[in-house]
Structures are given as structure tokens and as C-alpha cells.
């Protein structure tokens, strides 16, 4: 059974294993009569060929409270888009596959570029942002959830628990962040959260002092999870990062726009496993190497925006402090894993810590050299202000692609 600890900063909604999922589903069906709920699935075409996606579709076919499912499809040609449409045809809910690489979508992207509002790079951030724009244009959903498409342990209970806190009209939450233990194949996973984010936040608190934002991020048990739900009224003013800082960026936006009582974290799964990124030690622009640098930059940018002064000396001290904190946490992770019969490769873990320590310096140097860098995609409110017809054009383009390639 889970604990019932509350950290005092944001609400933690545990899974106490005392309530059947059928009861929660019935309640969600009741909520759905007055609050329409939508699901966004940011998806690479290659994920359709994995074992995870058929399982996810099978589980989603059992869900009765969703009004709409929006699948954002990346890295697909015309034949692959047609195949994707057939692949998702088994969904029982109203759904649409948005072909992000279609000629119509590329034309809209060129228009954004002319206005100086185009996302700076392709990736999950742009995919999520585009799907949110489509949902805003539909103007018929009150609640939205997002989860990844590579979850090999997926069940529809994950979605129900994720969306419940923001769907329940008697709850105050505008944003719910999913959390879980990253255990798979009897291994302790979640390296970036365990070995980078957690010790980095401890080190930052020691080096730059108490900051409410640091305490806020430390309150989340799994800040890098790709699963979150929110009420759609906050979407138009939400800034989405285009790089690997998406998850930290969304939490930062919740911190910027909402009171702490409007944010919660919710336990959504006992077992969670998905595709693992490689460390990519030799390539700074790939895998966890790139991800760790982007995450550090996202945290540094937010702290700087709140008044923290960073210098080269601060980053050197931060690297040393982080390294010691990370090794101390590794000892705790190793003992926890051993006690529970879970394997952990200490050499590989220490190698990751060494890489992350270097990337803290790399991210710090980049921040000092480019203090005004803003990888955030413009909010949909700004796009609408620049071109009031753009959102309707986006919805029309997606509908036209759906009709033409049926």
C-alpha cells in the first residue's frame, strides 16, 4: 500500500488501493456529462510498429468518458499517414490523426515563420503545441490529458487516475502531474530524474539558497513524467518548450500562472515501463546527453527569470556540489534496489553522473553565452493576436487531410 505523505507545497493524491477502477470510471462518466474530456497522444510513426501502441489502443477502446482523442503524428510520409489512419480506426471515440508533415501543415508552418512565431525545432514540444492548438480551435473540451505512446505497461486505469483530479468539479486542481515508480525488467530505471534532477535541485538549494521554485520542483516525485492533465482554459496562455525541457517547462508554467493549490501530483501506476533513451556519451545532441543539457538550461532560465544571479563561479561550485549529492543519492538508490531485489549497475550509474556533471557546466556556459535564448513556442494567445484566423485554419487543414487521405 502507498504511503499518505503530503509535502506541504502541492497536493499528492495517492493510490491507496481501496477503490475499484469501475467506481472511478462511473464517476468520470458522470463528470463527462457536463465537462467534455479530450486526450492528446503525441506520436512518432515508428511507435505504431512497437508492442506498446496496440496495447494502448486496446485499453483506450474500453474508455467511455472521452469526448475526443487527438493523435499528433510526426515523421510520416503520405503512405504512413494512410496506414496510421487505419491503425487508429479501432478507437471507439471521436478521433483525428493530425499529420504534422502534410503539405497543408507545412504551409501553415511557413506562415508562422513569416510572422516570426514558428517553433524553432521539430519534436515532441511542437507536436503537443500543435495538438493543443487544434483542441483550442474545437472549443468544446473542458479537460485535457496527455500521455506518451511508448508505455508497454499501459492500462486504462492510468488515464482514469491521471484525468480524475482535474475532471472532478469539486476539486480545485487546474493541473495534475502523473507519477509512478520506474521499475522494468527487475531494474531501477528513471536515470535522469534520479541521477540528475533530484541531486541538482538539492545542490541548487545549497549553492543559490532557498528558492520557492526549487522547493516547488522538489515536491514532484517524478517531475519528468510525460503524463499530465489540465483544464483547457489555461491552454491559450501556456508556453511550450520546443526542446527536451518540455516536462520541466510545463511545471514551470504552472508555477508562473497558477497558485500552488491549483496543482497536484497523482499516482497513476504501480508498474510503468517505456522506451529507454541511450546515454549517447559521444553525441551531445542525442539521447540523455542532449536531454540532460536541455533540462539544466530550462531550470537555470527559470531561476534567472525569478532573480537568481548566475556566474561561471556559481556553475563551477554547482557542479562540485551536484556531484557529491548525486553520489550520496546513488548509495541510497543502490540500497533501496538491493533490499527490493531490483538490479542496479553502479558503474553505469556513476558514468551517467559524470556525464550529467559535465552537462551542468555545458548548460551553464551556454546560458551565460546566450542569456536571452527563449526556446519556448509562442502561446496560442499570441498567435491568435497576430492572426485571428490561424486556429480555424489549423483545424480546417487537419480536417482536409483527414478527408483527402481517407
TrEMBL record:
Phylogenetic classification of the source organism: Bacteria, Pseudomonadati, Pseudomonadota, Alphaproteobacteria, Rhodobacterales
Keyword check for Transferase, yes or no: yes
Q: Which domain of life is it from?
A: Bacteria
GO MF, one example: transferase activity
Q: What is this protein called?
A: Glycosyl transferase
Q: Could you list this entry's UniProt keywords, alphabetically sorted.
A: Transferase
Amino acid at each position: 500500500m502507498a504511503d499518505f505523505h503530503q509535502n506541504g507545497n502541492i497536493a499528492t493524491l495517492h493510490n491507496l488501493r481501496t477503490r475499484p477502477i469501475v467506481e472511478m470510471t462511473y464517476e468520470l462518466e458522470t463528470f463527462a456529462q457536463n465537462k467534455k474530456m479530450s486526450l492528446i497522444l503525441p506520436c512518432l510513426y515508428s511507435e505504431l510498429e512497437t508492442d506498446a501502441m496496440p496495447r494502448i489502443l486496446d485499453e483506450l477502446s474500453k474508455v467511455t468518458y472521452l469526448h475526443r482523442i487527438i493523435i499528433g503524428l510526426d515523421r510520416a510520409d503520405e503512405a504512413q499517414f494512410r496506414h496510421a489512419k487505419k491503425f487508429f480506426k479501432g478507437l471507439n471515440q471521436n478521433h483525428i490523426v493530425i499529420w504534422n508533415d502534410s503539405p497543408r501543415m507545412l504551409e501553415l508552418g511557413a506562415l508562422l515563420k513569416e510572422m516570426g512565431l514558428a517553433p524553432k525545432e521539430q519534436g515532441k514540444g511542437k507536436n503537443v503545441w500543435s495538438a493543443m492548438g487544434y483542441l483550442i480551435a474545437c472549443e468544446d473540451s473542458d479537460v485535457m490529458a496527455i500521455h506518451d505512446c511508448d508505455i508497454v505497461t499501459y492500462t486504462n486505469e492510468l488515464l482514469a487516475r491521471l484525468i480524475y483530479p482535474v475532471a472532478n468539479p469539486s476539486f480545485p486542481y487546474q493541473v495534475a502531474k502523473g507519477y509512478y515508480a520506474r521499475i522494468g525488467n527487475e531494474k531501477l530505471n528513471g536515470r535522469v530524474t534520479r541521477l540528475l534532477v533530484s541531486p541538482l535541485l538539492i545542490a541548487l538549494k545549497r549553492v543559490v539558497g532557498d528558492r520557492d521554485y526549487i522547493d516547488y520542483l522538489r515536491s514532484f516525485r517524478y517531475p519528468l513524467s510525460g503524463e499530465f492533465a489540465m483544464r483547457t482554459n489555461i491552454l491559450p496562455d501556456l508556453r511550450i518548450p520546443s526542446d527536451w525541457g518540455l516536462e520541466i517547462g510545463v511545471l514551470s508554467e504552472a508555477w508562473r500562472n497558477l497558485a500552488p493549490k491549483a496543482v497536484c501530483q497523482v499516482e497513476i501506476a504501480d508498474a510503468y515501463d517505456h522506451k529507454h533513451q541511450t546515454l549517447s556519451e559521444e553525441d551531445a545532441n542525442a539521447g540523455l546527453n542532449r536531454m540532460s543539457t536541455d533540462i539544466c538550461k530550462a531550470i537555470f532560465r527559470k531561476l534567472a527569470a525569478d532573480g537568481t544571479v548566475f556566474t561561471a563561479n556559481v556553475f563551477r561550485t554547482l557542479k562540485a556540489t551536484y556531484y557529491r549529492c548525486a553520489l550520496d543519492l546513488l548509495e541510497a538508490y543502490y540500497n533501496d534496489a538491493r533490499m527490493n531485489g531490483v538490479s542496479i549497475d553502479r558503474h553505469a550509474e556513476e558514468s551517467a553522473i559524470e556525464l550529467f556533471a559535465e552537462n551542468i557546466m555545458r548548460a551553464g556556459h551556454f546560458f551565460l553565452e546566450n542569456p536571452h535564448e527563449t526556446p519556448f513556442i509562442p502561446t496560442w494567445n499570441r498567435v491568435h493576436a497576430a492572426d485571428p484566423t490561424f486556429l480555424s485554419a489549423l483545424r480546417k487543414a487537419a480536417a482536409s487531410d483527414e478527408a483527402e487521405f481517407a
